[in-house]
Amino acid sequence: MRYDVLILGGGISGLTLGYSLLQEGVDVCVLEASARPGGTIWSERKEGFLIEHGPNTALLTKQAHLDLFQSLGLRERLAFASETANHRFILKDRRLIELPMSLRAFLKTPLFSAKAKVRVALEPFHGRAAQEETLAEFVKRRLGQEFLDYAIDPFVSGVYAGDPETLSVREAFSKLYGLEARYGGLVLGTFLGVRERKKRPDVAKVKARLFSFLGGMVELPLALASHLGNGLVLKAAAHGLRPLRDGFEVSFRQQGVEQTIASKRLVLSVPAYEASRLLKGLNASLAQKLQAIPYPPVAQVALGYRLNAFERSPEGFGFLIPKREGRSILGALFSSSFLPGRASEGFALLTTFVGGMRAPSLALLEANGLADLAHKEVSDILRIKEEPTFAHVGKIERAIPQYTLGHGEMIKAIEALEHSLPGLHFLANYRGGIALGDCLANAVDLSAKILRQRSSRPV
Length: 459
Description:
There is one protein chain. This protein is an alpha/beta fold. The chain has three domains: 2-39 and 217-293 and 402-456, FAD/NAD(P)-binding domain (3-Layer(bba) Sandwich), CATH 3.50.50.60; 58-84 and 296-396, Polyamine Oxidase, Chain A, domain 2, CATH 3.90.660; 102-126 and 133-204, protoporphyrinogen ix oxidase, domain 3. A hairpin with a 2-residue loop joins strand 3 and strand 4 (49-52). It is globular and about 65 Å long. The chain has helices at 12-23, 63-71, 103-108, 114-121, 135-142, 145-159, 169-172, 174-183, 186-192, 194-199, 219-228, 272-279, 284-291, 335-338, 360-363, 367-382, 407-420, 436-456; strands at 2-8, 28-31, 43-46, 49-52, 58-60, 78-80, 88-92, 95-98, 209-213, 232-233, 236-244, 247-254, 257-268, 298-306, 318-320, 331-333, 347-355, 390-396, 424-426. The strands form four sheets. Strands 1, 2, 10, 11, 12, 13 and 19 form a seven-stranded mixed beta sheet that branches.
């Protein structure tokens, strides 16, 4: 078998790339080791509750996203978050405090002390760093410890399941880093960059609409897989690759049978640790760098309650918990509060997160223990008077790649290998952003790049 483009990995990045190329008439094949497409994206309905095993929502920041959904027949399946999702909370001293989203709200909020607010106001007077910093170092230098503790730390645990003490600000939060690099500071950059941001076609994340699908996020990978048809091969675990004079050959195993497949172009759209395994014989140095990327475990605990079990019905997007609060969970989403169809009438669905870089061992507890732990925490915080009527635990033992210090050097090594082996491409969420929207955008961009290469010269 020989294809023009072979994609290893049927997660959302690989599926989107495969679909985009197929739409342009490219002979493409996607190999996926597991029995279903979509990677960590999976949704299922149980006992009247719609639960997610991977991402619960995404942000609609590009018109290209809508165009993709339209072409897949998913435009009418979109489920947008209600206005209540604009209300997000941080736990401080056992009290949920709404995260301020305006200057006036910031000045009035009890989330930060008067001293911390003055410290933020002095941000423009702090200079640039002389070397690469962690996010924690960057924030403490520019905004102070309190802002790190009660704004950045919980945000990082909610997005990356990460630790600001280890994430690289330049790689993990490039736009934040760019404000200092270009304008000298965050406050100046926010004001001086208004005109530039207005010229961008993308919707700013703070203004973008939050969405899922009526049947959960799984609708997207299933639609992509359906359009790929026989171009998607499941239960096909690649275990070796080698360059050829005019392309690449990949060895894989499917249902115990050894096979090989050749292609002009090869895309590695698998997690870093899988890419490392495949590259050991080709580039040992890069393989070692990829293997070193941390992927902390995360457990999602879905808990269903009767609405009258709450002293006050959970309204809003949910809450995050700073590390210094000493809790066993990272936070929780009020899933049925802002998305339709997540719970039957008269019930509420909470989605609680455990583990990450903060407490990886907790994510590996057995299911009953995780459910009990999550209920104990949310019932104390939200004053829930009853046991849950429903509980479901989902675990991802290797969840979200961490962009730690030195991540940029690994990206340069990837670029160097791509340059030395034209036709080889890397497409995964350890490169170019971890969010679902980033994965979609990066896949579309790579599709355009491959099409340009095909039209200009053969590989």
